Every structure is written in structure tokens, then in C-alpha cells.
User: Which sequence fits this backbone?
């Protein structure tokens, strides 16, 4: 009987080995793609990644296509590499890249960009741990790590208890105001999303006060949403933060609020950051005191700017059309720092364009093409290659 089971095991292992060999063989013969520059500077397109899948006869393979070529993610068979790639979005933030360059030891084990703060004197990282075990211990505990930029010394305050009932937390923002550390928490309560600010002494880690933003809203609605309009650089100083407020399913009737860490007051803005005449589809980027936003339509992108301190608005300061780009459709827009990245489609082929944010000038335009492979026709490539996402990976 043992000999019988041993024979079956040998057959299964052999079949598995042949299957793995066959699968790797198929992957080694997949066609290669590249983003070909149509106009502009190829260096401006270096940050663009067209992400999606190649559909073959037997299966689909996920891949990324850049100006340097294509990378089939299925070829990455090592678990350690896959786990590293799963969190690579964290390293897309240029501020995080700078922190890793300046303070490699301090950054070890820290992997959430929204929990960092940095100014000329200090780097702060907040770590939250929660437990659902039924004990008398506090539900949520906070750990603060503070690095002195001048001396390189690190002060750590562990097991700071938060006086909250059992709720689900998420750290949204960390700020330093004089000798205090302020942390914005996202709290989920049944049908509502609430935000709470805690203030701590930066010298001792002692909790000083707690501000519930819900209590400052002029509303009695039970079903509401209060969401942070995150500053693009989440690890830079900002005394004022902004929120979007809506009740029930009335997403189009949103209001904007401003919260001051210094005063602890939440106040409604006279008009939304994007103004009263905004279209239904738009994206935005808050960059310190400047709020850039782009209205998106298949035939055009309209760029606008609102200055949160002066209240000055430059409505439609630049417009780029699909006709100008020579494409059938503009499918998406992302704003990052001083650039706007557009997802394009022309005759069934995906591509991207890069605009200078300050004036909408076209800096790059390119489309995915076949670099090498098994002799696909253009129609076969269009049928098999599905690049539905535009990812931006900028580097220092």
C-alpha cells in the first residue's frame, strides 16, 4: 500500500514539474511592449506606467508598460519580491524617498506615508495598534517616534492609550504646532464616518486634549460623511486642513470645511474649493495653499486653480482637447506636483500625455506599441493588450 501511494506522489510531482516548466516557457515567449514617444521629451514620460493584462490563448498575464519596456508581473515568482512589490506605492511619494535617503535607520519598519510629519527641525512618525480582544486594556494604543534633525537622536513614546470605545481607527494626518503633536484619526461609527483630533505634548507624549469634529458640525444628520481633502505632500507642515462634508447620498451637495490645528476650530467655507460651477467629473490636488483641479471630459481637460489664503481663483486657465492631442478620447487625469498626467486612447491603443501644470503645456505624449514578440498584427495586439490603468512612479 505504501508503494502504491509513493507511486502516486511521484506522478503528481512529475506532473507539477512539467506544468511549472510549461508555464515558465509560455511566460518567456510573451510579446514585449513599450511606450513609444509620439511628441515631446521621453524623459517626461519616464514616470508613466500603463498597467493591465496581456490575454493569450491559455491565460492572462498582468504587466506594466513603460518607456523602457514591459514587465510581466507573473514572472516574479518569488514570494519575497511579490510582497515588496505589493507595498511599492509607499515609495512613489517623493517625500518618503527623501526621508529614506536622509534617515534610512529611522525609516526602518515605517510604511505609511500619512503617518509622517517633517519640518526643518523634526521628523515625526505615529503608529497605531488596535485589538479586538475582550480585555480591560485600552482598545487603541499609539506610539510616537520623533527624530531630531540636527542631532539624529530619536525619542519614542510607547503605549499611549486613547480614551475611546471600540471603534476602527486610521491615522489620516500628523502635524506639529509649537511643542504639541496633533494627530487626525478617522473613526467609523455604524453608518457615519467621523474625524477626531488628539493633541500630545511633544516632550512627554502626554495626551493634552481631544477634539471631536462631529460635535462642531452644524448638522443633526445621522447618516453623513466627513472626509479629509489630503494635502498632496502629507508629510509637510500645514496648520489648516480641509474636509468635504455630505449627508446621506447627496454627494453633489457637498460642503467644504476648514479646521485649524492651532485654534481647534472647524468652520464652513463660503464656497467649495472647486467653486460653484464645477462639472460632475473632476480630480484635484491640494498643494499647501494652492488647490489645483481638473475637469475631465472625453474631448477635453480644463485646468483651474484656487488659492486658499488669498481666495483668488484662476478658472479654466488652461484647456487641452482630444483634437489637439490627436486622440479619440481622454480617459483619466492625475495631478502630481508640477505635472498633470492624462490617460489616452487612440484607435483602440492606450497611451498617456504629460502636461506642465502651471500653463497646460504638452511635455510628452506616447502610446503602447509592440517592441518584439511572436509576430502579432496590430489588431491582435489591440485585442490582447488591455492597459486600463495609468500609474505614476516619480523618482528623486
Assistant:
Amino acid at each position: 500500500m505504501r508503494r502504491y501511494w509513493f507511486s502516486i506522489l511521484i506522478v503528481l510531482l512529475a506532473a507539477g514539474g512539467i506544468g511549472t516548466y510549461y508555464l515558465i516557457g509560455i511566460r518567456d515567449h510573451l510579446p514585449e511592449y513599450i511606450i513609444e514617444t509620439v511628441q515631446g521629451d521621453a524623459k517626461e514620460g519616464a514616470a508613466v506606467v500603463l498597467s493591465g493584462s496581456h490575454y493569450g490563448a491559455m491565460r492572462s498575464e498582468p504587466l506594466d508598460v513603460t518607456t523602457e519596456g514591459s514587465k510581466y508581473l507573473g514572472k516574479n515568482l518569488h514570494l519575497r519580491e511579490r510582497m515588496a512589490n505589493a507595498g511599492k506605492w509607499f515609495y512613489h511619494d517623493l517625500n518618503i524617498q527623501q526621508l529614506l535617503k536622509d534617515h534610512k535607520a529611522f525609516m526602518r519598519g515605517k510604511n505609511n506615508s500619512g503617518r509622517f510629519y517633517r519640518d526643518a527641525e523634526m521628523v515625526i512618525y505615529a503608529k497605531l495598534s488596535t485589538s479586538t480582544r475582550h480585555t480591560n486594556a485600552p482598545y487603541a494604543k499609539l506610539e510616537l517616534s520623533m527624530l531630531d534633525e540636527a542631532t539624529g537622536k530619536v525619542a519614542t513614546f510607547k503605549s499611549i492609550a486613547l480614551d475611546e470605545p471600540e471603534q476602527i481607527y486610521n491615522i489620516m494626518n500628523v502635524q506639529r504646532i509649537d511643542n504639541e503633536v496633533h494627530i487626525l484619526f478617522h473613526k467609523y461609527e455604524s453608518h457615519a464616518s467621523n474625524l477626531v483630533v488628539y493633541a500630545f505634548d511633544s516632550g512627554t507624549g502626554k495626551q493634552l486634549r481631544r477634539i471631536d469634529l462631529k460635535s462642531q458640525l452644524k448638522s443633526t444628520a445621522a447618516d453623513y460623511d466627513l472626509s479629509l481633502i489630503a494635502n498632496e505632500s502629507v508629510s509637510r507642515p500645514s496648520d489648516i486642513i480641509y474636509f468635504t462634508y455630505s449627508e446621506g447620498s447627496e454627494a453633489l451637495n457637498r460642503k467644504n470645511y476648514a479646521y485649524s490645528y492651532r485654534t481647534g476650530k472647524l468652520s464652513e467655507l463660503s464656497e467649495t474649493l472647486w467653486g460653484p460651477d464645477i462639472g460632475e467629473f473632476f480630480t484635484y490636488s491640494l498643494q499647501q495653499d494652492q488647490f489645483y483641479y481638473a475637469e475631465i471630459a472625453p474631448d477635453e481637460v480644463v485646468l483651474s486653480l484656487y488659492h486658499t489664503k488669498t481666495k483668488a481663483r484662476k478658472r479654466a486657465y488652461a484647456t487641452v482637447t482630444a483634437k489637439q492631442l490627436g486622440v479619440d478620447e481622454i480617459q483619466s487625469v492625475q495631478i502630481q506636483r508640477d505635472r498633470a498626467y492624462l490617460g489616452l486612447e487612440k484607435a483602440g491603443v492606450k497611451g498617456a500625455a504629460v502636461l506642465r501644470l502651471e500653463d497646460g503645456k504638452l511635455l510628452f505624449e506616447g502610446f503602447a506599441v509592440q517592441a518584439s514578440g511572436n509576430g502579432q498584427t496590430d489588431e491582435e495586439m489591440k485585442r490582447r493588450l488591455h492597459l486600463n490603468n495609468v500609474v505614476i512612479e516619480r523618482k528623486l
Notes: Residues 14-28, 77-84 have pLDDT under 50 and may be disordered.
